[in-house]
């Protein structure tokens, strides 16, 4: 019973996480359904720390100190349930099962409840940062009971990435809260990448720049307020040349973006919660559209505009459009976390989420420290757009944001992320929205009623009887 923690499922993520524990001095039990992976881990990396390999679940569980802490690193879905069913009967009350996969938060809620009834803690944990993050310090988003976090938290905080000495790991909230936050993280990741792609496309098609020139633009942007992991790797990918053809890599890759589902879940959940996450939705839809090869093939005959090219000095404007749209996407994502937290009673600290995303994860960025500061200044700010410093930046960016959106439309470059984010900005700041007209139409065709700006109550107008006063229907 020497192992402080165990990892079952030794794919790349599981293996690297186990190595991270071992490198931090924790004796770590390791187990995999097929033994070859366990053996390979010991052979290749056994010298990095104290690994306790186990052939069977029974031996694995027996090697763990109590309360046992077991991290499950298998493909989200049915495999997770299968592993839980295998291990749960071997555990004792107080033991802790951690799911480090990209599970849907509703599944995590179900699993947590079932295991709680058996006295076992279930900790649904978001882990971001890919293979390298798992090994060198990921961003970790654990949900579940506070009691479980007391045992687990210090170890996770130890192996997490650090920014200014602060770990990129914090208790998120009960049951599905951790996986919910990870889901929204991924939704924001989709939006971030879509906006980067639009900036690239606008510069490529609009301003006629080459991938290598655009790589240089991104390199410069990465020294400013856009500094982030995704902008950094955009430079690398755009600079890359295909070995076989010598062409830019981006020109030989099939332009159909794939997805495993977390971005889609973010939007589906937002629809249920009634939170407008239009920037994230556009990113998910843009990936779907790219995959509709048949539709795209048939539609290729549609004419585009015949317009002039853009100046390459336009890159500065594109930076503003990208930045402003990014602020909108993050504001929408944080609103979704706020709404999920209220719906499920999770009491999530939004500033803490920005804090643990500053390092380790895919969306890590200098910018997240600003979001942390915004929530520190006003934990109840209803939208990040209203935070004084973001509001100021958006107002300064808006001329360029509008110009780029118009220029993209004029040149026939699709920029749904830029334009929907701008529409969101304009809708939120509007004095009056045409929603009033929609209410009128609803009342006309279905007596769906409306409220007035000048009086309390719910009303219906007798549209077929002109002159007849409206009726108050709520008394
Ligand atoms: C992370 C990533 C990761 C996710 C990939 C792929 O935080 O490390 O979000 O968890 O699996 O980004 O997602 P898609 O295949 O859906 O693009």
Automatic annotation (TrEMBL):
Q: Where does substrate bind?
A: 102, 128-130, 185-186, 190, 260, 287, 442, 448
Protein name as annotated: 6-phosphogluconate dehydrogenase, decarboxylating
Provide the leader sequence positions. none
Q: Give the EC number(s) listed in the UniProt record.
A: 1.1.1.44
Q: Which family does it belong to?
A: Belongs to the 6-phosphogluconate dehydrogenase family.
- Superkingdom of the organism of origin: Bacteria
Reaction it catalyzes: 6-phospho-D-gluconate + NADP(+) = D-ribulose 5-phosphate + CO2 + NADPH
The entry's function note states: Catalyzes the oxidative decarboxylation of 6-phosphogluconate to ribulose 5-phosphate and CO(2), with concomitant reduction of NADP to NADPH.
Q: In which pathway does it act?
A: Carbohydrate degradation; pentose phosphate pathway; D-ribulose 5-phosphate from D-glucose 6-phosphate (oxidative stage): step 3/3
Source organism lineage?
Answer: Bacteria, Bacillati, Actinomycetota, Actinomycetes, Streptosporangiales
